Amino acid sequence: MTIGIAADHGGYELKEKLKKSLEKEYELTDFGAHQFDPDDDYPDFVYPLAQAVSSAKVERGIAICGSGVGACIVANKVKGVRAALINETYSAHQGVEHDDMNVICIGARVIGDTYAQEIIRAFLHAAYTGEARHQRRLKKLNQIEKENF
Length: 149
Ligand code: RB5
Description:
The protein is an alpha/beta fold.
């Protein structure tokens, strides 16, 4: 699976830690930040990541900021991105299985590094079930997207 990762200064340290283990298992693209800068802005990194997910350059994205909120807001501004702020493992896999979530947003100041790793693992190991009820809901989401983007 191809994945992308992005973080501002709030998530930079966690991103660097996650990269070490993710690179062993996945084809990983890092959309920055490429160095710690306390004055950087999350849209500068999360937007290119979201575009890469939208254009299928990467299959899934991991967006990290201090709370995960800003990253999630930016990612959902891009057509075809279904991003959610996730702080526990149940939603990490169910969000993929039911909602075809393709970007997970993490708050590095909210959860510990080890648990963040477990959440991301649950996200990456999950697959969309494609069940009729979920397809029906996704179709409605796509219609909303068409009307608003
Ligand atoms: C940066 O200080 C912080 O505001 C940002 O990482 C994020 O938490 C925004 O949602």
